[in-house]
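Tokens in:
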């Protein structure tokens, strides 16, 4: 008995740095942000309890709240389908038995390693500026230059391309799912004369639907919290077209030092993510395939 207790103590000792980090940097800020959301709290002044004033102001007087919410929803609906579709397409290509395929897999995964950095966002801004490389490339084909970052109609799409370019993590998960599909299913489909499209929709998609659901949930959560790309590339402009919700939270917290109001904004975002995630889980029962019992 003493032996097992000593083993437990040793295990707790090993994970104590993680526990301390979780309590100090995760749980404590999480709880305190909820408390601060009901106060007028600033770094430069004492906190004053204000009840629901922050939430009332958010929905009635903040002129940037609904534009930021609209831009964020548009960003999510634009980025997540493109990213998952492209990741699945590349994963299927890299699932083929080709020579030196591991080199290609590594090369396609690289953007996800440094894709979210400030340096790459700056590079993206230079690529899509009016005299940037992208417009120069289009000029060779006689296509007129596009104001990628200055036109409100295309600015958000340009920013979302950076997130789509970081498809590596989703691709690796899709690739792992594709590896788990029994080859016998494809062999039986070939005997029945099924086309490639038929095999994709009748075998591949149903078999990797749990993997797709996981990627869908994770990428939706990440898209709602996107900050670096829109902030560095456009700063929220033009005309608030790329002013996503995370920039609104950041500006109120570290530009205007309204920590209480920023906390309230954060909790609304948290609830919004919870609602979307719950809807995804609710809908998954209609299209997710499970091997043990079908749909």
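Residues out:
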């Amino acid at each position: 008995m003493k032996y097992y207790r000593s083993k437990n103590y040793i295990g707790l000792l090993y994970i104590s740095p993680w526990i301390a980090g979780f309590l100090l940097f995760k749980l404590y800020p999480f709880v305190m942000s909820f408390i601060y959301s009901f106060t007028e709290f600033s770094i430069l002044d004492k906190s004053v309890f204000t009840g629901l004033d922050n939430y009332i102001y958010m929905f009635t007087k903040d002129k940037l709240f609904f534009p930021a919410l609209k831009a964020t929803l548009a960003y999510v609906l634009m980025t997540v389908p493109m990213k998952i579709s492209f990741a699945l397409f590349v994963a299927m290509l890299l699932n083929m038995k080709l020579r030196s395929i591991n080199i290609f897999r590594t090369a396609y995964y690289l953007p996800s390693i440094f894709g979210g950095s400030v340096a790459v966002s700056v590079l993206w801004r230079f690529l899509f500026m009016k005299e940037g490389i992208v417009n120069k490339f289009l000029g060779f084909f006689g296509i007129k230059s596009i104001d990628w970052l200055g036109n409100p109609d295309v600015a958000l799409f340009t920013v979302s391309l950076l997130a789509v370019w970081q498809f590596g993590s989703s691709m690796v998960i899709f690739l792992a799912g594709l590896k788990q599909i029994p080859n016998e299913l494809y062999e039986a489909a070939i005997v029945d004369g099924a086309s490639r499209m038929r095999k994709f929709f009748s075998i591949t998609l149903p078999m990797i639907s749990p993997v797709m659901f996981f990627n869908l949930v994770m990428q939706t959560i990440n898209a709602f919290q996107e900050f670096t790309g829109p902030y560095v590339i456009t700063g929220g402009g033009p005309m608030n077209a790329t002013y996503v919700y995370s920039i609104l939270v950041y500006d109120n917290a570290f530009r205007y030092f309204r920590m209480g109001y920023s906390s309230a904004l954060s909790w609304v975002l948290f609830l919004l993510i919870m609602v979307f995630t719950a809807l995804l889980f609710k809908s998954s029962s209609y299209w997710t395939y499970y091997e043990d019992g079908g749909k």
